[in-house]
Amino acid sequence: MYRLVALDVDGTLLNGAHELTPRVRRAVRATCAQGVIVSLATGKLLRSVQSLIDELGIYGPHITCNGAVIAEAQRPVSSHSSDSSGQSNQRDLSWSQPLTADETRRVLSALRTHAPDLAIAWYTPDAIYTDAPTGPLDAILRAYHEPPIRHIAALDPAQPNLPPAVKLLVTGTPERLARLRAEIAPTLDETLEVIGTTPDFLECMSRSVSKGVALVRLMDGLGITREETLAIGDGENDISLIEAAGMGIAMGNAVPALTQRARMLTASNENDGVALALERFILAGQLAR
How do residues 70-104 score in pLDDT, each as one tens digit? Predict the structure, then answer.
């Protein structure tokens, strides 16, 4: 019996238009109604998926910033102690692991040397900063429902009012980002990782954090075993997530590297793949009502 479900968001829970389909919504809410904890596992900030959390009633711990943060989604004060889907928040498992100042400087130096024209997004657990003018970075993050970027004079770990970064992100064409990754990865030491999270994004973060590491931390905090955990994803950054779970499922639109490591394959995000998986493994083959 599964007690915890971890769901990637873009390319998995949401379709290509970044929308939640009715069938997926019903399946997630029906899963919660059976007492299963549903946690999102996303590269985004918690506030960027708050509307999804509210719509689905999945209050509690969620994996954000690609595993560098576990953030608690609190139920609105006016709500009852448990929402209509039955999910409850038993304890505060909030946690984060930012980059060190030295790691941040090394990543900034590599990006500015090899891609001085690309705007850099400096992610903290609850906000995004950049020292670039308003432009393409703002537009693409807005399309992914991230909050407005905070524009500042300079990205520098020495800035006293700038919170430490949990990851640094750049955006560009898949071809440009692939070249940039090949150029900067050899210049960074073993404590840092460069990863493609979507075709649009290249991210630099601590090698000691990932969605999978965060999921293990979440399982430990909730007292849930690997065998009681199911995870679904589609991207390179979801490989660790599905490998950490007892049942790791790849979306039909998943990258080949993830599909090869998954135990099961479901339909694509355009064909309600998350709903089909939950209906099979959680809801006993019955459609969510």
Answer: 999 988 876 544 454 556 545 788 999 999 999 99
Indicate where the chain has its CATH 3.40.50.1000 domain(s). 4-97+209-281
pTM exceeds 0.85: yes
CA distance 44 to 197: 11
Across 247-257, b (16+ Cβ under 10 Å) vs e yields bbbbbebbbee
Mean of pLDDT over the chain? 93
Domain boundaries 4-97+209-281, corresponding CATH code: 3.40.50.1000
Q: Give the rounded percent of residues in the chain with a pLDDT score beyond 90.
A: 88
- Tell which wins on pLDDT, 289 or 62: 62
CATH topology of domain 101-206: 3.30.1240
